[in-house]
Amino acid sequence: MAFPYPIIALEEHFWAEAAIEFYTAKSKQDPYKTTALLRRCRDELLDVGESRLKLMQESGVTVQVLSHAASFLALDAGTCQKVNDEAAKAAARNPKHFAGFATIPMQDQKAACDELRRCVTELKFVGALIDNTCEGRFYDDPLFWPFFETAQELDVPVYLHPSYNEQTKPLLYDGNYPDAIAQTLSMHAWGWHVENGGHILRLFASGFFDRFPRLKLILGHMGEMLPYQLDRIIRITEHQWPMAGVKPERGLKRVWDENIWITTSGMFALAPMATLLKQCKPDRIMMSIDYPFARHEWGLQFLKDLQQSGMVSESTLEDIAYRNAERLLKIKV
């Protein structure tokens, strides 16, 4: 059965030549050479041409929003500019099939604001994708807030993506099993998602969303665990946090409904989707593959399964496949 709608995929990664040069200059190993999984994905990360387009066509993906893969090191301003220029060139070669999320030097806030502005106004990028932490620091620190103020001003979304955090692995995930297992537990098997979802709660507790009430944040992986805990967390924030002096102007449920969008990236099962549909407004759910760490055909089969499940109407299915992304990113398939 052919899928009847176009697909916009929002979290589709590449690894830039400029990043390779950056790691070499720092005498650090390229992170996409470190493990068998990452080495397997390396060739696909480096390709933003015909091979990628062929895979997209075979699986019905009309548009990929190119986003730079997570980095072990915070890329400096010059490297981020080169990364973004590489993505812009790929999009210019195939404007009907590629858009871009900006890569941002979060450790340098003036450069971060300048680069976001350049990417949106000159390169016509549709937002930014940033690592979950910057050199181990979270963004509830007001040091990082000028960037988000710029994103709100430009009215473009910021995709908060899981990233490497070497500080948490030995404490929480090393155990009586091979180190390769500890690595996966600390990353894509569990830890990344818990930490990324927790980051949203840190931002909420800090008053971040009162400061930036119009900011648009995107979370991948069906909400990074938050939808399954959301009711409990809302109750705690409403009844316990005020006793500690934390009472944001808008409650967590309102922030969830007004400031957060969710993609499916790498999560292609109906059970978590059922929870997401209960917890999110249907216009806040968007399709993503998480290529090349997840495969195009998995995403396509998921949409077909969702259609056959009867969990959503055809109109909602079409929204998830591409129309919600069109509205948020201001693009057209």
Automatic annotation (TrEMBL):
InterPro entries reported for this sequence: ACMSD (IPR032465), Amidohydro-rel (IPR006680), Metal_Hydrolase (IPR032466)
Signal peptide from the UniProt entry: none
Residue intervals of the Amidohydrolase-related domain: 70-330
GO molecular function annotation: carboxy-lyase activity; hydrolase activity
Cellular component annotations (GO), alphabetically ordered: cytosol
Entry keyword annotation includes Lyase: yes
GO biological process: secondary metabolic process
Pfam families: Amidohydro_2 (PF04909)
Keyword terms, alphabetized: Decarboxylase, Lyase
Superkingdom of the source species: Eukaryota
Family to which this protein belongs: Belongs to the metallo-dependent hydrolases superfamily.
Name assigned to this protein: Amidohydrolase-related domain-containing protein
Taxonomic placement: Eukaryota, Fungi, Dikarya, Ascomycota, Pezizomycotina
